[in-house]
Amino acid sequence: MEALAARPDSTEVFGALGHRFLLDEPLTAQDLSELQAQMGVELP
Q1: Taking the mean position of all CA atoms in its chain, how far away is CA 24?
Q2: What is the DSSP string of 3-40?
Q3: pLDDT by 10-residue block (mean), the chain, 44 residues
Q4: Which domain of life is it from (predicted)?
Q5: How far apart are CA 32 and CA 16, in angstroms?
Q6: Among residues 5, 23, 24, 34, which one has the fewest Cβ atoms lying within 10 Å of its Cβ?
Q7: By three-state DSSP, how is residue 1 classified?
Q8: What local confidence, expressed as pLDDT, does residue 17 receive?
């Protein structure tokens, strides 16, 4: 995502002009565990 954002044409890639993609901070291990339990899945 950061590489795409750094491109001069980043506002034209995949409709980025419309939604201005931003990354949140990564989930903590605890938050990830809670999410997996909530959704009933185990992510790699």
Answers
A1: 7
A2: HHHHSTTGGGGGGHHHH---PPPPPPHHHHHHHHHHHT
A3: 72 61 87 96 92
A4: Bacteria
A5: 27
A6: 24
A7: coil
A8: 58
The CA distance from 6 to 37, in Å, is 35
pTM (global) more than 0.90: no
Report the alpha-carbon distance of residue 2 to residue 29 in Å, rounded. Answer: 22
CB neighbour list of residue 1: distance below 8 Å, 6 or more residues apart: 21, 23
Rounded-to-integer distance, Cα 22 and Cα 25, Å: 10
Distance CA 35, CA 40 (A): 8
Q: Give the per-residue pLDDT at 33.
A: 96
